[in-house]
């Protein structure tokens, strides 16, 4: 399953699932992509189909392995990954080195186990208000689910996950 970033950073007010769907289509990717975010309807840990959570590796756009499988992201270690494996945007840029993302931080709105944090997910990703808070992770920590709280006015990286495997 591919983990890919949106082509631009977003504040806490985003239509992330739609953006993931649209940018994947424009990039010629045929499977379904969902935002790597907890929402008011769903915990992050359940975004990927149950049948695909254990046996498929999570890879970047070029097929390099980031995680052994979906479940390994939520084992309580904060989603540790090898920071030497790049995360690419749908248009092929490395979010860790490209200046389009000046802050190397990803939104997620979740606990380290992928459960939604309703107090820290920018009002279900509907506000960029400076006073509202969102859970996010600085990528330099080598964790996708590091537990840091930021104002929803920040423009951060938004990741998308291919949520079901289509051969």
TrEMBL record:
Keywords: Collagen. InterPro entries: C-type_lectin-like/link_sf, Collagenase_NC10/endostatin, CTDL_fold. Residues 1-166 form the Collagenase NC10/endostatin domain. It comes from the Eukaryota. SUPFAM superfamilies: C-type lectin-like. GO terms for cellular component: collagen trimer. Pfam families: Endostatin. This is Collagen alpha-1(XV) chain.
């Amino acid at each position: 399953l591919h983990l890919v970033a949106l082509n631009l950073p977003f504040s806490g007010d985003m239509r992330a699932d739609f953006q993931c769907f649209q940018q994947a289509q424009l990039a010629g990717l045929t499977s379904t992509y969902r935002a790597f975010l907890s929402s008011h309807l769903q915990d992050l840990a359940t975004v990927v189909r149950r049948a695909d959570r254990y046996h498929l590796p999570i890879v970047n756009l070029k097929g390099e392995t980031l995680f052994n499988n979906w479940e390994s992201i939520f084992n309580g270690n904060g989603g540790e990954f090898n920071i030497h494996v790049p995360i690419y945007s749908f248009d092929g840029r490395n979010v860790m080195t490209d200046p389009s993302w000046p802050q190397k931080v990803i939104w997620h709105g979740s606990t380290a186990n992928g459960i939604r944090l309703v107090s820290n997910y920018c009002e279900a990703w509907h506000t960029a208000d400076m006073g509202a808070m969102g859970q996010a992770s600085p990528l330099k920590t080598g964790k996708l689910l590091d537990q840091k709280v930021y104002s929803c006015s920040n423009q951060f990286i938004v990741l998308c996950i291919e949520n079901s495997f289509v051969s």
